[in-house]
Amino acid sequence: MFASKLLVLPLLLASYVSAHGFVHEIAVDGKTYTGAQPSDQRSDLSSIIRQIRDASPVKGANNPDTNCGASAFVASDVGTVQPGDSLTFDWRGADLSRWPHNTGPMLTYLASCGDTACNEFDSTKARWFKIDQQAKKPDGGDWYQADLMQGGKGTASIPSNIAPGNYLMRHEIIALHLGQSMGGAEFYPSCSQLKIGGSGTGTPKDNELVSFPGGYSDDDPGIFVPNVYDNNLDYQFPGPPIAALVTADGPAPTTTSKNGGTSTTKATGTSSSTAKPTSTDGSGGVKSQKCKLKKGSGKTGGVYARHVRRAVRRAFGRKVSA
């Protein structure tokens, strides 16, 4: 019996490690950009994806890490894209397993870096406008996020009439499997550095811009969702509406937020240098029901000492000292 439980222990540990995640790759216009795995040490991997320090969820809408993820480092490169280009986002667990969650929306924002190349831009100064949001499928059943568990990818498109320039893209999953409790939502933001070409003129309005933190509150209807598992849920997206520039060319496709209806719009439509690493430290999360994998010290290769203790307790039904 002891031996059989010992064999199960690695599987339990794996479940803790994989229960959180990050954007592993972004693909656009035939190019694939790979992001570094989360680590306290800045990777020397050339990428447009800002590396996060920890794959654990960001907790609390006022947490500074809602900006670009857990104390994210500036990435080295900038990806060149064109208006109308479609991007895919390969979300993975911390150990590169498939994305583990299936409940909650996926949202995408852009922010102008101004005259500064985005691999030198401080994201805490970013003013974000929303270009895409996806929740539940038209039949009112699964969330689009659930596709990621089956190996699918997140998607977003560059608005077809957007003004050219330097832009930071913030693609985000809000996992709501604990969203019935105040502060239970899990935020997984990821930022990537872009240079958009073309000759468009579209820019966001001032009232469409938000900061992170600041764009959400823990009691927003789309973040605190007591009836999140109701098939007839009329889901309300958090944050600002889709920016008007996204639909300026005419009607845009819609994504579904409730059973039997639609209520939101969806967007249509490398240079390299070395930047000094910068980061923003995250804190201020609210106390709430937690996932089993949490931020902390004493980690080795993505496995925390407390994860080992918990897994042992589950397998053997006994306490293990620190």
TrEMBL record:
CDD domains: LPMO_AA9 (cd21175). The keyword Magnesium does not apply. Residues 20-231 form the Auxiliary Activity family 9 catalytic domain. Pfam families: AA9. Its EC number is 1.14.99.56. InterPro entries: AA9, AA9_LPMO. GO terms for biological process: cellulose catabolic process. This is lytic cellulose monooxygenase (C4-dehydrogenating). Its main location: secreted.
